[in-house]
Amino acid sequence: MGDQERNTEVDTRQLFAEPGTRVELPGISGLGGWLILIQISLIASLLLLVVDLSQVSVIMNPADRGMFSEADLDLYHRVMNPLLWYGVISNVFLLIIVIVNLVLLYKKKRQFPRMMIMLYLANVLAAIGTWIMIGQTEIPGALNAFDTTPARNLTIRSILTGCIFIPYFLKSVRVKNTFIK
Asked: Mind telling me which residue stretches traverse the membrane in this protein (predicted)?
């Protein structure tokens, strides 16, 4: 090396960055990589939530459709109606979060990673609430009212998904480089 001058460039962007702005880290950015899976899951969630909510009117008004006898309608209103309303309210809430997340994703907004974490936590809370409500539902004369296995599996799946993707959104260089607006 001797008398040769070293060609080193110092990145001073962080020193002079305006407060509140993120400086792009060296590495990858863009909506590729694992963010493709996130995009697919958000679009699939949007479609599934819309389909679920479109079927609500059929389920919420069984008397209009002649689905139950008079004796069964009383049982329906005491047992099923609270479960269905919980499902509708939680689905509307999740649908709003999914739509907001899709907008934030494609605008590459800084709030997107936090909102995705919020979506994963909301999914877990909705699944736990469903599991609890189904487990506490009693039908007179029935030994076991409802099988809670599907609700338990949904809860476990939501927790595992959150355990995988929440750390991804917190640590990923791609996420930090992409969502800077």
From this structure: 31-51, 83-105, 117-134, 154-170
Q: Tokens standing for 139?
A: 């039908």
C-alpha 154/C-alpha 160 separation (Å) is 10
Question: At 35, which amino acid appears?
Answer: L
Q: Quick one: tokens of 101?
A: 């997340």
Q: Burial level of 48, CB count in 10 A (0-12/13-18/19+)?
A: middle
Cβ atoms of 84 and 59 closer than 8 Å: yes
What are the pLDDT digits (tens) for 52-111? 998 877 676 655 555 556 666 777 777 777 888 899 999 999 999 999 999 999 999 999
| Residues 70, 77: Cα–Cα separation, whole Å | 11
C-alpha 65/C-alpha 59 separation (Å) is 9
Angle between helices 112-136 and 149-171 (to 10 degrees): 160
Q: Write the pLDDT tens digit of every residue in 96-145.
A: 999 999 999 999 999 999 999 999 999 999 999 999 988 887 665 555 56
Contact 115, 101 (CB under 8 A): yes
What single-letter amino acid sits at 176?
Answer: K
